[in-house]
Amino acid sequence: MRKKLKWVKMGVRYSSLSLCSPTHQNHQSFRLATFTCDTKQKSNFSFYPTDKDRIFNTHYRRVSLFAITQFSICGLHSRIGNLKCGRVKEMETRQGIATKEALNLQSVDQDLVQKMVYDALVWSSLHGLVVGDRSVQRSGKVPGVGLVHAPFALLPVSFPESHFREACELAPIFNELVDRVSLDGKFLQESLSRTKKVDPFTSRLLDIHSKMLELNKKEDIRLGLHRSDYMLDEQTKSLLQIEVNTISSSFSGLSCLVSELHRSLIIHYGERLGLDSKKVPGNSAVIQFAEAMAKAWTEYNNARALVLVVVQSEEHNMYDQHWLSSVLKERHNVTTIRKTLAEIDAEGELLPDGTLLVGGQVIAVVYFRAGYAPTDYPSESEWRARLLMEQSSAVKCPSISYHLAGTKKIQQELAKPNVLERFLDNKEDIAKVRKCFAGLWSLDDSEIVSKAIENPELYVMKPQREGGGNNIYGEDVKETLLRLKKDGTDEDAAYILMQRIFPSVSLTFLMRDGICHKDHAISELGIYGAYLRIKEKVIMNEQSGYLMRTKVASSNEGGVAAGFAVLDSLYLT
Ligand code: ADP
Ligand code: MG
Predict the structure, then answer these.
(1) How far from 347 is each of 129, 134, 234, 344, CA to CA, in Å?
(2) Catalytic residue among 277, 549, 558, 569
(3) Of 165, 288, 301, 400, which shows the fewest CB atoms inside 10 Å?
């Protein structure tokens, strides 16, 4: 479900590359991302590796390596200056649309684009902005085999600073909301009771949840690594939520790199582009997620315990996941293991005190990067594994109740009048959350169903699914609603209806497979949130970085992994 090279005519300018200022204002993201160093500031930079900051050290090493490579490639580059490493392919599908980007891409000359394309491709390869290449057979299973750059936008998309702040401020509120909703087992069960009858997948999740309620299972350590997604509605200029992801919120690793890629390109080409690299906000999602996980691991209090990453048997987005594992290891000395649900079923064991063992090793934290889609459970074996983990004392990210709290049906229930008030106390928070809710309806609302049949292009129909590619748009909304009406069964309970959001369209350079496409595109902003509560004490409740995804305006769906979108960052206006 859920996805992010550049030299310039740098030559000598690369001496500034030694980077690393401990006094840099955005120290964290700087550390992570190696190259934010403005050449103009180089005289102020120095480097002090410390034991405390192992990742800093690691990245320093990478930078040194990079610097060396850089100088040699630099010479090469100047010799092969006319080499076209990436093609710019024009695919302007929507002419004449007002573009609002800070940068008018129409005015950027082809030569400059070619240079940036080349630099961006090199940068992404050297910095791990990569995914498995689907055309290479073992690329989804074996790390280091068949890597390709992650799809990304060549330059960041303009986004109003006020709306970015608004989205950031919502993150801790949504973190708290998810936690509160997850505590109300009756609300979850009742809200999903009609869905349960027609959706076998949701039904299985609810069965596990019921079992936990029967056991009166308490989760003392509650870890949430969420991402709330938004689009900026062009007409009303309002920030509207698409959904909140409580399971497998992806791209915390790669999104940071895209922000750094964009900064780096702007540092090198900013003058010619008329852009300022400081307007790309710092993004330390992976560091913050790793910190939340490490804190949960510490609370579990077993120095030998591991973090278990639950994975799909084939995963082309594995490097995004490895980034998180790597930061956990480098910065917190916490080790992760990766297992599929089937492997966990085969190797997992529950001790009488609730300790989860996998392959004989104690698991402190279970981090799900699989388990959100029916296809992740091809047999009873996978469901057994899910139940086993849920019954254990390991910290689940997410627990079954956090998972259910993030379903689309619950999103729709929360949008009903007076429901938010059941879970949040602060009136201002309630107002902020409500403001970002788009129209959301259940299909038992016959008035809205009639309206959607009349104007299907104004709605999106959503089943209880995650991972992209499941929603229904346009004429298909009409057809499906008419069919459901005719059938008169309960199948309508499998869906919700949502107001379709129309964000502004801007001209973008989209990079995929080394090819640059110029097209009109729309963007979706995801804000990460990390939450950790130990019994009654909230240890962490933070906005934790961001993800921008951009897709061609003519495409309905937004998934990067699913092949619809590219990773992006933002340029504050
Ligand atoms: P999933 O769980 O599959 O990610 P989403 O609700 O996020 O489901 O929908 C997938 C994609 O469809 C989004 O990333 C977005 O691009 C598009 N989308 C979803 N809801 C809307 C909406 N209300 N208006 C416009 N586009 C939408
Ligand atoms: Mg989504």
Answers:
(1) 33, 29, 51, 5
(2) 549
(3) 301
- pLDDT tens digits for range 400-432: 999 999 999 999 999 999 999 999 999 999 999
Secondary structure of residue 336 in the 3-state scheme: strand
Report how far ligand 1's centroid is from the alpha carbon of 309 (Å). 26
Q: How far apart are CA 559 and CA 371, in angstroms?
A: 17
Which atom from ligand 1 is nearest to the alpha carbon of 466?
2
Q: What is the rounded CA–CA span in Å between residue 534 and residue 179?
A: 12
State the burial class of residue 195 (Cβ atoms within 10 Å of its Cβ: 0-12, 13-18, 19+): buried
- Flag whether pLDDT at 344 surpasses 50: yes
If phi over 0 gives left and psi between -120 and 50 gives alpha, with beta otherwise, what is residue 312?
Answer: beta
Distance of CA 127 to the CA centre of its chain: 18
Q: What atom of ligand 1 comes closest to residue 551's alpha carbon?
A: 16
Query: Can you give the three-state secondary structure of 54-65, one letter per residue?
Result: HHHHHHHHHHHH
Q: Find out whether the beta carbon of 156 lies less than 6 Å from any atom of ligand 1.
A: no
Atom from ligand 1 closest to the CA of residue 438 = 23
Residue 106 is predicted with a pLDDT of: 72
In angstroms, what is the span from residue 498 Cα to ligand 2's centroid?
13
Q: Is 100 a catalytic residue?
A: no
CB of 500 closer than 6 angstroms to any ligand 1 atom = yes
Residues 152, 550: contact at Cβ < 8 Å?
no
Contact status, residue 131 vs residue 3, Cβ threshold 8 Å: yes
Phi-psi region of 483 (alpha: psi -120 to 50; beta: other; left: phi over 0): alpha
CA angle in degrees (0–180, nearest 5) for 413-418-420: 65
Among residues 409, 462, 478, 518, which one is catalytic? 462
**Quick one: which ligand is closest to 227's CA?**
2
242 in ligand 1 pocket by Cβ < 6 Å? yes
Confidence (pLDDT) at 108: 82
Which position among 245, 264, 393, 506 bears the catalytic label?
245
Residue type, 534: I
Q: Kindly compute the dihedral angle of the four CA atoms of residues 129, 133, 136, 140, in this order, to the nearest 10 degrees.
A: 80
| Distant-in-sequence, close-in-space partners of 60: CB < 8 Å, separation ≥ 6 | 20, 47, 49
Amino acid at 467: G
∠ CA 555-556-560, nearest 5°, is 75
pLDDT band at 224 (very low <50, low <70, confident <90, very high): very high
Distance CA 264, CA 262 (A): 5
Q: Is residue 525 within 6 Å of ligand 1 at its C-beta?
A: no
Written as one letter, the residue type at 159 is F
